[in-house]
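Subgroup meeting minutes
Present: P.N., E.W., G.H.
Scribe: E.W.

1. P.N. recapped why we're keeping a running log of single-chain structure predictions: easier to compare across weeks, and new members can see raw inputs and outputs side by side.
2. G.H. added today's entry (231 aa).
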Amino acid sequence: MEAIFGKEIKKNSRVIEGGGYGHSWCYQNTNRNVIRFFKALRSPIGRKSDKEFQIPKWIYYDQKAEDYFFSSFFGNEIGIPKIHKDIKRTNSLDIGLVCKKDQYKNRMDFLKKIQDYLKSKDIKADKIYARQHKNDKNSFLIKLALNLNFDNLMNFYTNIKRSYSKRKEEKLINTLNDLKDIKLQRFNSLSNMYNKLTKRNYSKEWIKNNLRLTEKSLNFILKQENLEKWN
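Output recorded in log:
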């Protein structure tokens, strides 16, 4: 910021540390040149809950600019899932927004644009859920939910570079590793059972169908575990 606007902006700035683990920082600056710059970029000024959400049109003129924008957006806003207590699936992977009734249509349109970007990266996010906020009858909680199958999680991990939150990135990696281990445990159990009965291995297609894996996710698991190629 100082490289762009000069060292004089230091007297107009402060950094506030927050978050439950001290991993969040808020940079504030009241310098007029800084405010005008971000306003020109269509950044919301003031309380975001009272503003309309718009994705700046200028990011679509350059693929790198678009990717950088969504890198920061997902790194900040995405809710990372954990393995559910039944150890068979994950909790939701979603983007949640709270808004007043008069901002409902704007938030829905905003999330549909997020859907379009995810689709361009081969990531499925088919559903948008909306319900009344439990603490405010005049507000809604709206969520864009990403599909939770293993391939879709892998596509989200590999096709979008997320920035801003190191802790969220670590949490996503841990979830994928846990899910991979669950698939491998089931695979080993099925293989052992079959081998005892027939002394032969399951076919690749049989394993994929029973574990509900695609070619991509199966190859990822095999590569990570350095398993031998299938016959």
